[in-house]
């Protein structure tokens, strides 16, 4: 009788065969790993609140100047009238550059953290011994990080936009999401979060070191574009146009001709800007997937 | 799952063939071939830097061999999309994220391999960490982390288990528990492969030994066979008349190695015979101790040429 062989403390396994490997299980595992670290909550919550606060505060401060336009002595702005309607850029002001930089650093670091956290702790060996299909692990990680950062970016961008435009509405300056360029700006501002996160993951997959990865995130996403500005050299500017930061700034521009927004020479087109954002995300994801394949861990 | 194994339907073996691993100019593992059988505890022994960890990592596909192959049941481990139901491993107790709790760590691993979450509670109970399961691993002692590593290895109820220096940091109670666990796992028909740099740890744990030094195989045999390689029984003698006693013993055919302060180590004579000779010649003995040639000595002798990091003379 087979039941006599049964060890009492060990129930008979239901299925004799191993259940099929599912990608969804790896996503659940990575989701659990992300949300069982305090630093995740800290980064996501603080960044979302801080970015919204920065955007709202910036516009709040602007209200004073909108009500009492300040014109520097001897420097009358061309076309300036008593109405500041034409001079104020409600789109650019609601999606602030400081908030943008903070988002890129924070979510770039969050993405990097999910990867270097494995290497610097040694957990990566436990992970890959449990799931030898390494690329699926990284794909699941990408899926989870992109989901979380997209939602966080969307929260920052949409809440900032609607709150600040509501504030500006009282001065008859507010935009609706249907205004020209508004949806595009809000979408691009939200999507810079997942783009930065995936770039962070790729950099961490290459560097595999905590401090090094975070420095690389700041360097590549924020400092590098500074070297490729200006209108003097076309090539330099064109390299600069390939940076996610430049692409985002292009997509944030209010197309309202009354604002006389100066794009400068060799400015990227809208299509180029979207392509640049997509390419950074895609290439970074491929890098993160490829480098992990056969390397010793 | 593994009960079929216990019934002898499948033999789970680890088989390394001409396994070689080079890191730049350093050869960590050189042409290593051995097999590890199921149903027994196999000790993997070698001095520090002998290549034990590198070998275990190659078994798990974490490091790519520079040459040769290693398979489990004729299949490279890395060819399984999910691993925990095939091989459970504790490579380094620190291979966990310090910021997660023990339960969170195991829970994520269970999810990844589609193992029911109740199994997490079971293994935590089994290793005695249930009470601290919600504490962050960063605050764990080495012994607690070893227990967590063992829980990780047991999670998938695998037929093959690898442990790298599992006894480090464990208290005496923990050492006894681990030994019992290994014997039980082997008795259930599983393959248990345990590395150590301490022969004394293996003495009461392993049934067979794979001994390596400087990345090369030194011995692969049963514990008894290995013990027989050691020097013969020796007797430690302390006497104020050692200068006169030594030639008498030598005349009886013993090998006498003089020591400090009127002592010597004698091989080739039993303690009884030495005592009789001393009595006959009226020499006073202060000490007469049989030193069973220990496994430790056999191990030290065998690996003497291959110790990588030899300490300098004590100052």
Automatic annotation (TrEMBL), chain A:
The domain of life is Bacteria
**Protein's UniProt keywords contain Transmembrane:** yes
Membrane spanning segments where? 41-60, 98-117, 138-162, 182-203, 210-228, 273-292
Q: Which UniProt keywords apply?
A: Membrane, Transmembrane, Transmembrane helix
What start and end residues bound the annotated signal peptide?
A: none
State whether keyword NADP applies: no
User: What is this protein identified as?
Assistant: ABC transporter permease
């Amino acid at each position: 009788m087979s039941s006599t062989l049964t060890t009492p403390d060990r129930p008979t396994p239901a299925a004799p065969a191993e259940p099929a490997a599912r990608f969804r299980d790896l996503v659940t595992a990575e989701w659990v790993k992300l949300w069982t670290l305090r630093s995740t909550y800290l980064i996501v919550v603080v960044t979302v609140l801080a970015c919204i606060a920065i955007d709202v505060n910036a516009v709040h401060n602007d209200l004073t100047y909108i009500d009492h336009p300040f014109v520097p002595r001897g420097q009358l702005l061309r076309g300036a009238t008593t109405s500041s309607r034409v001079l104020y850029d409600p789109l650019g002001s609601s999606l602030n550059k400081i908030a943008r930089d903070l988002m890129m650093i924070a979510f770039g670091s969050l993405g990097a953290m999910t990867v270097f956290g494995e290497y610097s702790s040694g957990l990566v060996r436990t992970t890959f011994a449990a799931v030898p299909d390494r690329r699926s692990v990284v794909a699941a990680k990408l899926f989870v990080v992109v989901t979380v950062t997209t939602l966080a970016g969307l929260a920052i961008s949409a809440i900032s936009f609607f709150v600040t435009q509501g504030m500006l509405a009282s001065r008859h300056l507010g935009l609706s999401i249907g205004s020209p360029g508004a949806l595009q700006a809000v979408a691009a501002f939200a999507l810079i979060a997942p783009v930065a996160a995936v770039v962070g993951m790729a950099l961490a997959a290459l560097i595999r070191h905590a401090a090094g990865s975070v420095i690389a995130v700041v360097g590549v996403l924020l400092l590098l574009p500074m070297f490729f500005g200006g209108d003097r050299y076309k090539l330099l500017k064109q390299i600069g146009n390939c940076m996610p930061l430049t692409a985002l700034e292009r997509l944030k521009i209010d197309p309202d001709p009354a604002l006389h927004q100066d794009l400068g020479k060799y400015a990227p087109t809208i299509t180029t800007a979207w392509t640049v954002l997509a390419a950074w995300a895609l290439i970074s994801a491929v890098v993160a997937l490829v480098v992990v394949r056969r390397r010793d861990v | 799952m593994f009960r079929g194994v216990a019934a002898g339907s499948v033999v789970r073996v680890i088989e390394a063939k001409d396994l070689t691993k080079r890191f730049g100019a350093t050869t960590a593992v050189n042409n290593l071939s051995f097999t590890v059988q199921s149903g027994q505890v196999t000790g993997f022994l070698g001095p520090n830097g002998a290549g034990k960890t590198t070998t275990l990592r190659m078994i798990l596909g974490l490091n790519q061999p520079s040459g040769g192959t290693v398979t489990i049941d004729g299949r490279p481990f890395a060819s399984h999309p999910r691993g925990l139901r095939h091989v459970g491993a504790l490579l380094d107790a620190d291979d966990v994220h310090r910021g997660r709790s023990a339960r969170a760590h195991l829970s994520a691993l269970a999810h990844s391999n589609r193992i029911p979450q109740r199994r997490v509670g079971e293994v935590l109970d089994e290793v005695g960490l249930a009470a601290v399961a919600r504490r962050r691993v960063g605050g764990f002692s080495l012994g607690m982390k070893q227990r967590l590593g063992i829980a990780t290895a047991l999670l998938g109820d695998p037929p093959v288990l690898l442990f790298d220096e599992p006894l480090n940091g464990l208290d005496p109670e923990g050492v006894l528990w681990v030994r019992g666990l290994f014997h039980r796992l082997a008795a259930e028909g599983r393959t248990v492969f345990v590395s150590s740099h301490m022969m004394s740890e293996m003495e009461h744990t392993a049934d067979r030994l794979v001994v390596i030094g400087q990345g090369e195989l030194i011995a692969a045999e049963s514990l008894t066979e290995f013990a027989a390689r050691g020097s013969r029984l020796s007797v430690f003698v302390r006497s104020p008349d050692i200068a006169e006693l030594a030639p008498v013993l030598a005349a009886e055919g013993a090998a006498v190695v003089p020591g400090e302060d009127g002592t010597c180590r004698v091989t080739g004579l039993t303690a009884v015979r030495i005592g009789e000779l001393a009595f006959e010649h009226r020499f006073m003995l202060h000490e007469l101790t049989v030193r069973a040639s220990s496994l430790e000595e056999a191990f030290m002798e065998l690996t003497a040429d291959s110790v990588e990091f030899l300490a300098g003379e004590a100052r």
